[in-house]
Amino acid sequence: xxxxxxxxxxxxxxxxxxxxxxxxxxxxxxxxxxxxxxxxxxxxxxxxxxxxxxxxxxxxxxxxxxxxxxxxxxxxxxxxxxxxxxxxxxxxxxxxxxxxxxxxxxxxxxxxxxxxxxxxxxxxxxxxxxxxxxxxxxxxxxxxxxxxxxxxxxxxxxxxxxxxx
Length: 165
Ligand SMILES: CC(C)(COP(=O)(O)OP(=O)(O)OC[C@H]1O[C@@H](n2cnc3c(N)ncnc32)[C@H](O)[C@@H]1OP(=O)(O)O)[C@@H](O)C(=O)NCCC(=O)NCCS
Prior knowledge:
Layout: H1 2-8, E1 9-13, H2 17-31, E2 51-57, E3 60-69, E4 74-82, H3 91-105, E5 110-116, H4 120-125, E6 129-137, E7 141-149
Parallel strand pairs: 4-5
Antiparallel strand pairs: 1-2, 2-3, 3-4, 5-7, 6-7
């Protein structure tokens, strides 16, 4: 089942106003609406300089993820979201691998992220390790700081909250 789905998945960068509207709608529905957050709360200050990836199945956007750079060596992934009906079928993993590939290709040594506790297992399966507690989003969703070395240059990980500021 998963193999046949993956063969049909198309992962590429978002282009055009219509595609971005669908992309932000998916981010909002999966990551913000269940917590009664307003539209546009699914965006931050890195939208203009980030890499926005989408995963399409037969022309339908079913998964998204975003990459930005905190420094030349450190890239950060945010807003991973898969349409609930398609979760657990390899879409998130496909997106995550492509985001990591692009981070490494651009010279990053590591990828960092703040994972929802419910997604820790997903990131651990992809080689991320937990660095520490990141806090509660909306006073209720626990997040954990995680990181993975992706470059040939393994510099080690600085510790402490300033690393993620
Ligand atoms: C988390 C999320 C992005 C994962 O995407 P997905 O398409 O469901 O994941 P995949 O099907 O690619 O899973 C890849 C592997 O991780 C595992 N996995 C997925 N979600 C998991 C979870 N929450 N806990 C443990 N393992 C998980 C899968 O079983 C699979 O392992 P396998 O290859 O050994 O079978 C997606 O489920 C999602 O959008 N969740 C809601 C929003 C969210 O939490 N986003 C992350 C914010 S940090």
